[in-house]
Amino acid sequence: MRRKDESKKSVILDFIDGYYNEYNEIPAVRTIAEGTGIALATVHRYLLSLKESGNLEYNGRKSISTKRIDMESRHASAPVLGYVRCGEGEEETEEVIEYIRLPESLVGTGEFFVLIAKGDSMIDAGVNEGDYVVIRKQNTASDGDYVVALYEGLNNLKELVIDNGRYILRSCNEDKETYPDIYPRDLKIQGVAVCVMHRLKKRR
Question: For the HTH iclR-type domain, which residue ranges apply (predicted)?
Answer without folding.
Answer: 29-59
